Amino acid sequence: MNDIIKVINILNNIPEPFSVDGIIKTFESSSKDFIKSFALYFYKENTEESRLWYVSKNKLVINDKSNNKEYKLFARGNKFGYIILNTDKNKNEIEILISYLSIILYSEKLSFLANRDKLTGLYNRGYILKYLQEKEITNEIYSIVIVDLDKFKHYNDTYGHNIGDHVLKLVSKVMKESLKKIKYKSVLARYGGEEFIIAFDIDNKKTLIEAMEEIRKSIIETDLSTEEYSLKATASLGGAIKEENTSLRTFINKADQSLYNAKETGRNKSVILDF
Question: Residue 116: is it exposed, middle or buried by C-beta count within 10 angstroms (0-12/13-18/19+)?
Fold first, then answer.
């Protein structure tokens, strides 16, 4: 039972921001000593039709079903999926673990709906502002970057809003992938319209500019074309580093002024102004 408690404690201490996939991968790594393999399924909204969401690296649960056991994912009166495990662990102990896993997964699914932008799947403005307000309490040095797609109105006016949405979704995906290559912790959100905001655990200008350029180049190098149109995009980025005794409002305004400078001096560039 101690190993079950250990996994529950690890799940309970996943640092925010986390995700459904992050929870599942933490579950996989922390329970590998007694769960050989698993497959997790979620029900489609308002139905009991399921879809496979995740299979553990060890595919035994798929390749050899002789030792598989199925457990419902059930929380707050809702059945929202099930998990198939390949394990020799005592059933009662596994049920305790799956019950806890269900609660944390369901809570994150609800949080996802409340804190995510529906179009891009990124965090929304409300979430990122709350995140930044919480960082204020720690009084740590960190940085933010505001990303604005250049002349975005052109996509909507020329090609229609469906193409504009296509560009926003693809650029969001590109930025997420680009951030994975940067070793510093980051949180990406849609700030509004064609603007995005990134919070970085970076405390110096040189490193922040390098990160900004990584993102800018990833956008300009991406082919955004559809079957009908050949499309590319550029972005302007404005950054700021948090200083002691600076309010959050002033901090965001500094990044905004850097962005304004980037756009006014030619667009498609990264700027951090000195104040």
Answer: middle
Tokens of 147: 């990303």
195-200 β-sheet, strand order: 186-192, 195-200, 143-149, 235-241, 270-271
Q: Which residue is listed with tokens 């962005």? A: 259
Q: Give the whole-angstrom CA distance, residue 93 versus residue 239.
A: 50
pTM of the entire structure?
0.66
pLDDT digits (tens, 9 = 90+) for 37-76: 999 999 887 677 888 999 999 999 988 888 899 999 998 8
Residue 257 has pLDDT above 90, yes or no: yes
Distance (Å, whole) CA 45 – CA 199: 32
Catalytic annotation on 194? yes
Instruction: Give the tens place of pLDDT for each residue, 185-242.
Output: 999 999 999 999 999 999 999 999 999 999 999 999 999 999 888 999 999 999 999 9
Catalytic residue among 16, 194, 195, 228: 194
